[in-house]
Amino acid sequence: MKKLCDNRLTKNIVIIGMPGSGKSTIGKELAKRLNMKFCDIDEYIVKKESKSIPEIFQKGEEEFRNIESIAVKEVSSKFPQVIATGGGVIKREENIKVLRQNGIIIFLNRPIEHIAQDVDIKSRPLLKDGSEKLYDLFKSRYELYDKYCDCKIVNINIEECIEKILNFIQ
């Protein structure tokens, strides 16, 4: 686990990971415990665009990624807060550069088997073709999550995961 020396509570805590890894659930609880604001970038996009993520994806993934990059810039400029990103935010290095300017990046690495059991795949645009797509996404994204994170935490249990994040940022 990499350690940072600066005062983390003046920065955003940015949570990255696969769809269904627990970014929003853990992010909300972490923000509550730290008395910080919480922002889910996907929810921010839905509110701003007045469309669901699947509706935005109907115009293509590239269009969604453009909207997501704008949202990342807007959201990350306000700090400190806890930010849950979309699973594909790591696909554009520009997003990571922006998030890193004012934030610490935490990778929630939830076992893929747990995600496959728990996630409503049909509600996720990039997973609508079934659970095999989930495994393909994991293979294509894992290296990027690992490369861009300041801290990697295996998410098996919410409470344990939050404690590990708190220990890391103190």
From TrEMBL:
SUPFAM superfamilies: P-loop containing nucleoside triphosphate hydrolases (SSF52540). GO terms for molecular function: ATP binding; shikimate kinase activity. It is an enzyme of class 2 (transferase). Keywords: Amino-acid biosynthesis, Aromatic amino acid biosynthesis, ATP-binding, Kinase, Nucleotide-binding, Transferase. It holds the Pfam family SKI. Pathway: Metabolic intermediate biosynthesis; chorismate biosynthesis; chorismate from D-erythrose 4-phosphate and phosphoenolpyruvate: step 5/7. It catalyses: shikimate + ATP = 3-phosphoshikimate + ADP + H(+). GO terms for biological process: amino acid biosynthetic process; aromatic amino acid family biosynthetic process; chorismate biosynthetic process. InterPro entries: P-loop_NTPase, Shikimate/glucono_kinase, Shikimate_kinase/TSH1, Shikimate_kinase_CS. GO terms for cellular component: cytosol. Belongs to the shikimate kinase family. This is shikimate kinase. It comes from bioreactor metagenome. The lineage of its organism: unclassified sequences, metagenomes, ecological metagenomes.
